[in-house]
């Protein structure tokens, strides 16, 4: 990842050991970090600090993470918010998305997973930080809305482009159909989840992925891109 010195991340959690753990790890990755332990201080700090990414705990005393998320999305021009939730329930995911959250991570989580999701949000929402981004045999150029695979430009529809970009950026992470629908089609999409299967099938054909070695199906869990 490039230009990390230009990337500001704010951590908001009322558990000191989580803040210390994440702050140390992310500073070692080169990010500029600020921290807050409650919602009110988080909002005031964010207005001054202007972070690109906020890692935000849901359950906090006083102002909870949902309200902080709503206020940050209202008052900051462009910010990616990753919610930390203690439970993986559909209601929490929907509530987070409707208040403006961009992604969520369920506790307990690995630092590597959070780092991958931060990188994914930066590439999605701040493409100016990256000209062309390469992942194994893929090269993504978001300004041209173009994806090359093994030096071959893929002929993709706008939705196929967004889906493949999301899968590749999140390579190594299992993505459920509902998560893919939320991130690619939008949380207010009223269609069936099977639309994901249709588009995955089309991408596999264009990638010549007959054996499903590139885009893997994990039965009952979702899809995962495995890069060579």
UniProtKB/TrEMBL annotation:
<protein>
    <submittedName>
        <fullName>Two-component system OmpR family response regulator</fullName>
    </submittedName>
</protein>
<keyword id="KW-0805">Transcription regulation</keyword>
<dbReference type="GO" id="GO:0000156">
    <property type="term" value="F:phosphorelay response regulator activity"/>
</dbReference>
<dbReference type="GO" id="GO:0000976">
    <property type="term" value="F:transcription cis-regulatory region binding"/>
</dbReference>
<dbReference type="InterPro" id="IPR016032">
    <property type="entry name" value="Sig_transdc_resp-reg_C-effctor"/>
</dbReference>
<dbReference type="GO" id="GO:0005829">
    <property type="term" value="C:cytosol"/>
</dbReference>
<feature type="DNA-binding region" description="OmpR/PhoB-type">
    <location>
        <begin position="130"/>
        <end position="227"/>
    </location>
</feature>
<feature type="domain" description="OmpR/PhoB-type">
    <location>
        <begin position="130"/>
        <end position="227"/>
    </location>
</feature>
<dbReference type="InterPro" id="IPR001867">
    <property type="entry name" value="OmpR/PhoB-type_DNA-bd"/>
</dbReference>
<dbReference type="InterPro" id="IPR039420">
    <property type="entry name" value="WalR-like"/>
</dbReference>
<keyword id="KW-0238">DNA-binding</keyword>
<keyword id="KW-0597">Phosphoprotein</keyword>
<dbReference type="InterPro" id="IPR036388">
    <property type="entry name" value="WH-like_DNA-bd_sf"/>
</dbReference>
<keyword id="KW-0804">Transcription</keyword>
<dbReference type="GO" id="GO:0006355">
    <property type="term" value="P:regulation of DNA-templated transcription"/>
</dbReference>
<feature type="modified residue" description="4-aspartylphosphate">
    <location>
        <position position="57"/>
    </location>
</feature>
<dbReference type="Pfam" id="PF00486">
    <property type="entry name" value="Trans_reg_C"/>
</dbReference>
<dbReference type="GO" id="GO:0032993">
    <property type="term" value="C:protein-DNA complex"/>
</dbReference>
<dbReference type="InterPro" id="IPR011006">
    <property type="entry name" value="CheY-like_superfamily"/>
</dbReference>
<dbReference type="Pfam" id="PF00072">
    <property type="entry name" value="Response_reg"/>
</dbReference>
<keyword id="KW-0902">Two-component regulatory system</keyword>
<dbReference type="InterPro" id="IPR001789">
    <property type="entry name" value="Sig_transdc_resp-reg_receiver"/>
</dbReference>
<feature type="domain" description="Response regulatory">
    <location>
        <begin position="8"/>
        <end position="122"/>
    </location>
</feature>
């Amino acid at each position: 990842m490039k230009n990390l010195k230009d990337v500001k991340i704010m951590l908001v959690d009322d558990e000191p050991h989580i803040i210390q753990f994440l702050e140390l790890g992310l500073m070692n990755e080169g990010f500029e970090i600020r921290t807050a332990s409650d919602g009110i201080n988080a909002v005031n700090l964010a207005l001054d600090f202007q972070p690109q990414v906020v890692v935000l705990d849901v359950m906090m005393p006083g102002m909870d993470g949902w309200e902080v998320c709503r206020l940050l999305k209202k008052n900051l021009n462009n910010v990616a918010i990753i919610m930390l939730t203690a439970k993986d329930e559909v209601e929490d995911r929907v509530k987070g998305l409707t208040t403006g959250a961009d992604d969520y991570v369920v506790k307990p989580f690995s630092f590597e997973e959070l780092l991958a999701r931060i990188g994914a949000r930066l590439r999605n929402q701040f493409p100016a930080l990256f000209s062309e981004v390469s992942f194994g045999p893929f090269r993504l150029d978001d300004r041209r809305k173009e994806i090359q695979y093994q030096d071959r430009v893929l002929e993709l529809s706008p939705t196929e482009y967004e889906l493949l970009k999301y899968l590749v950026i999140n390579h190594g992470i299992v993505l459920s159909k509902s998560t893919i629908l939320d991130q690619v089609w939008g949380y207010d999409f009223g269609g069936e989840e099977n639309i994901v299967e249709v588009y995955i099938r089309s991408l596999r054909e264009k990638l010549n992925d007959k054996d499903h070695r590139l885009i893997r199906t994990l039965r009952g869990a979702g899809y995962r891109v495995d890069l060579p």
